[in-house]
């Protein structure tokens, strides 16, 4: 009965710090959201309800980081307060070990971890999908704001636009390159200068271009159809560029908009394609080797005794036909090189989905590790844990996040296995946490940095 009361007491001491940490970190993320997006929304004339919808959908991926981040400062503050009030000493004097103290917190954190796994797999992908759809719809409202200097823009359907210099007040542009992909005939328009004018009554974005040229080839298979047109002034009207928000239902999903089941299906699909590519490469190489050996055998039979003499060597400088074997080898190498690139692309996609699958489990599991690491650190630091907990937690999570992002990049480039890339941070932090936890439990009678001798602790740890 006393143990149950103690468990409830320890857990109750975590509720306040966790809510406080959650509020502080959420405030930081919300301020970053306002700084990043509010100006763009105002420039596009987005309605208040749409802004609120965008904000609530953005909370989905925000809380994916906020919830694990809040665990560490809450643990530091809760156990730090217990240590500062000498309640840890009182529990130790009653024969309660540090392991037993953190047991209720670990149980609650395990439940939080399971909830996060469900959240990452079922709710977050749908939230990300709706957010991406809304983001693309807002981007089409006022495409002139999507066209930025020295950046290719696909804001206008069927067009890719690059502008070197742009004046948003006057609409003047310089160094213009417009690639028109619609209509079945690719067209490139290049101009030194011009203006962008949006005609709201007609929902038309007009480009008035000066001193440029147009490149087009109606029949891509026939180079003779290529034509180049020079112009002094040219006007391009792009239709259907309304400022009002038009909702669309985008069916395509990237890896962060998929559940584990969806990504596993994609992995099987890419795996089948990779197997087919390997089989094709093996068949091509095998056929060529068989044909090459057959030609060598035929040549050997031709040069055998009683056969006709070989043809005379050509004179120096005379034209010489390339042997069939060499010509075939060149073609085979081109085919194998193309297939190698395709295979590498498929394997990169498999790794990318594998990384996202493991991330849905590795990031929630970090909550348990943060408790194992935070509790002994708080007991050792005592009152100081209250003053440095937030800053230390953010620094620690930053290191963890660097591990996570670095591993993701390495896995995407096929330099590391996806499971190792996502779990490496957990493995390293878990080893450190278990080591500190064991040492703290052994020296549980010494609490606070004032009475703690690091040199003595290090000697005892390695004795």
Architecture blueprint of SSEs:
Layout: H1 2-44, H2 48-84, H3 87-93, H4 98-139, H5 143-146, E1 159-166, E2 172-180, E3 187-199, E4 204-216, E5 227-238, H6 260-302, H7 324-381, H8 384-412, H9 418-442, H10 454-461
Antiparallel strand pairs: 1-2, 2-3, 3-4, 4-5
Provide structural commentary.
The chain is α+β, with helices and mostly antiparallel strands. The protein has two domains: 246 residues, no CATH class; 93 residues, no CATH class. Helices cover 64% and strands 12% of the residues. A five-stranded antiparallel sheet has the order 1-2-3-4-5, with no helix packed on it. A hairpin with a 5-residue loop joins strand 1 and strand 2. Helix 7 packs antiparallel against helix 8. It is flat. 26% of the residues are buried.
Short note summarizing the structure:
This protein has 463 residues and is of the alpha+beta class.
Tags for this model:
463 residues; alpha+beta; 5-stranded antiparallel sheet; 12% strand; flat
Describe the global form: flat
Question: Structural class, from helix and strand content?
Answer: alpha+beta
- Span between N and C termini? 40 Å
* Biggest pleated sheet: 5 strands, antiparallel
């Amino acid at each position: 009965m006393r143990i149950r009361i103690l468990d409830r007491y320890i857990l109750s001491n975590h509720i306040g710090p966790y809510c406080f940490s959650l509020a502080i970190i959420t405030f930081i993320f919300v301020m970053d959201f306002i700084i990043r997006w509010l100006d763009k929304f105002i420039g596009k004339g987005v309605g208040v309800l749409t802004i609120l919808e965008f904000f609530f959908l953005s909370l989905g991926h925000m809380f994916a980081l906020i919830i694990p981040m809040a665990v560490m400062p809450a643990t530091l503050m809760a156990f730090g307060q217990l240590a500062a009030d000498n309640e840890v000493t009182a529990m130790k004097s009653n024969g309660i070990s540090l392991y037993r103290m953190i047991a209720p917190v670990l149980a609650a954190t395990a439940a939080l971890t399971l909830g996060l796994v469900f959240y990452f797999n079922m709710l977050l992908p749908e939230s990300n999908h709706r957010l991406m759809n809304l983001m693309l719809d807002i981007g089409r409202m006022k495409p002139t704001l999507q066209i930025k200097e020295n950046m290719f823009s696909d804001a206008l359907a069927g067009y890719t636009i690059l502008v070197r210099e742009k004046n948003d007040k006057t609409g003047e542009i310089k160094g213009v390159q417009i690639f028109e992909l619609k209509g079945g005939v690719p067209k490139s328009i290049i101009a030194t200068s011009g203006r962008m004018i949006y005609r709201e009554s007609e929902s038309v974005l007009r480009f008035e271009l000066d001193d440029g040229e147009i490149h087009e080839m109606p029949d891509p298979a026939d180079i003779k159809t290529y034509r180049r047109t020079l112009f002094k002034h040219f006007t391009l009207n792009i239709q259907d560029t309304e400022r009002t928000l038009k909702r669309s239902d985008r069916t395509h999903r990237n890896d962060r908009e998929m559940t584990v089941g969806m990504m596993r299906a994609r992995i099987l699909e890419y795996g089948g394609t990779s197997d087919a590519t390997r089989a094709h490469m093996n068949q091509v190489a095998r056929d060529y080797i068989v044909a090459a050996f057959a030609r060598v055998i035929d040549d050997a039979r031709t040069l055998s005794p009683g056969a006709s003499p070989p043809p005379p060597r050509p004179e120096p400088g005379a034209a010489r036909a390339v042997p069939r074997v060499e010509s075939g080898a060149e073609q085979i190498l081109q085919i194998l090189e193309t297939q190698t690139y395709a295979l590498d692309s498929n394997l990169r996609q498999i790794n990318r989905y594998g990384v996202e699958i493991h991330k849905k489990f590795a990031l929630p599991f970090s909550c348990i590790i943060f408790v194992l690491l935070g509790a002994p650190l708080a007991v050792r630091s005592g009152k100081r844990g209250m003053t440095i907990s937030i800053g230390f937690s953010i620094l620690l999570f930053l290191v963890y996040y660097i591990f996570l992002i670095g591993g993701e990049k390495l896995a995407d480039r096929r330099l590391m296995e996806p499971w190792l890339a996502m779990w490496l941070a957990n493995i390293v932090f878990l080893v450190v946490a278990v080591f500190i936890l064991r040492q703290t439990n052994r020296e549980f009678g010494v609490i606070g940095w004032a009475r703690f001798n690091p040199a003595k602790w290090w000697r005892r740890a390695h004795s």
